[in-house]
Design a protein that fits this description.
Blueprint: H1 2-16, E1 20-21, E2 24-25, H2 30-46, H3 55-76, H4 80-107, H5 115-145, H6 160-184, H7 188-218, H8 227-257, H9 264-289
Antiparallel strand pairs: 1-2
Helix pairs in contact: 1-2, 3-4, 4-8, 5-8, 5-9, 6-7, 6-9, 7-8, 8-9
């Protein structure tokens, strides 16, 4: 009702604001009529856009099937059918929800400019507290163990691989920054090139994670081996999931960018998120691998 009242007030302002010439009110010009029509048309296009999106509901449903049902089916109940059903329903729903939400963000004009730039830091703060919770658990176990660390059953974990992964992830932050610079300069081809390089570096990072996990699992080091293994796989896996999400954001940006469509706010948010994931990795390396 408020938006309708504002429209009505704006309409009247066009009528009242025309100047009086020799004491006689002029009628509203054709240009003013067109302006009111454009405002009304834009209002009807965007008035209910975000409120009617089905993406958040589908995304939450996908997370529900994948995490509580799929994960508990595998790790708690060891039920293969339950795991397959949870993952089979959850993954497509998550992909559909994310794809739709990204499509809306990339193709529709923002109803209120600058909200995403303000909202993203709030989201990142919530993510920081989640990581802090994981690190606090690790610190408690580490300090309680004293000299008996790492626990029995822990194999020799290479520190070379995480150092290489650090170089890769830091490099990807620089390439993403270059992509933003190209976008600001209006160089779409340059933006696409640096964005693709960033995606490739992120994929290489995840490839090293899979390689390391495979090596450790074959050595008998699994999440249930000891307290250190639980912390190791929880923290590194949680970080890797954020890298995966960041890559998904970049792919969502790249697909329309190849067609010449970009959204500066969306790109900025994806970039800030990626830099946040980069910074968190320094804590992961220093605490998990070197302490």
């Amino acid at each position: 009702m408020l938006s309708g009242w504002l429209l009505h007030t704006e309409y009247l302002s066009f009528q009242v604001s025309v100047f009086v010439s020799k004491g006689k009110t002029k009628t509203m010009s054709t240009e003013a009529t067109h302006q009111i029509h454009d405002i009304t048309h834009e209002h009807h296009i965007h008035e209910h856009h975000w409120e009617t999106s089905w993406a958040p509901l589908v995304l939450v449903a996908g997370i529900f099937f994948l995490v509580p049902i799929g994960f508990s089916g595998h790790f708690v109940y060891e039920n293969q059918l339950m795991t397959i059903i949870g993952a089979g329903l959850g993954v497509p729903l998550i992909l559909a929800g994310v794809a739709k939400w990204v499509e809306e963000g990339m193709s529709h004009k923002n109803l209120v400019e600058g909200v995403s730039i303000v909202g993203l830091p709030i989201f990142i703060v919530s993510e920081i507290f989640i990581f802090l919770g994981l690190f606090a658990s690790y610190w408690t176990m580490r300090l309680s163990a004293g000299i008996n660390w790492p626990p029995e059953g822990t194999p020799e974990i290479s520190t070379t691989i995480p150092l290489i992964m650090t170089v890769i992830l830091v490099s990807s932050s620089f390439t993403m920054h270059n992509a933003e610079v190209k976008l600001d300069d209006g160089d779409n081809s340059g933006f696409n090139k640096w964005l693709i390089i960033t995606i490739l570096l992120g994929c290489v990072f995840l490839g090293f994670t899979v390689f390391e996990y495979n090596h450790l699992i074959h050595a008998g080091f699994v999440p249930g081996t000891n307290s250190y293994s639980s912390a190791f796989f929880s923290i590194t896996g949680f970080h890797a999931s954020h890298v995966f999400i960041g890559l998904g954001l970049f792919v969502a940006v790249l697909i329309p960018a190849l067609k010449g469509k970009t959204n500066d706010s969306f790109v900025a948010c994806a970039s800030v998120y990626w830099h946040f994931v980069d910074v968190v990795w320094f804590f992961v390396v220093s605490q998990i691998y070197f302490w």
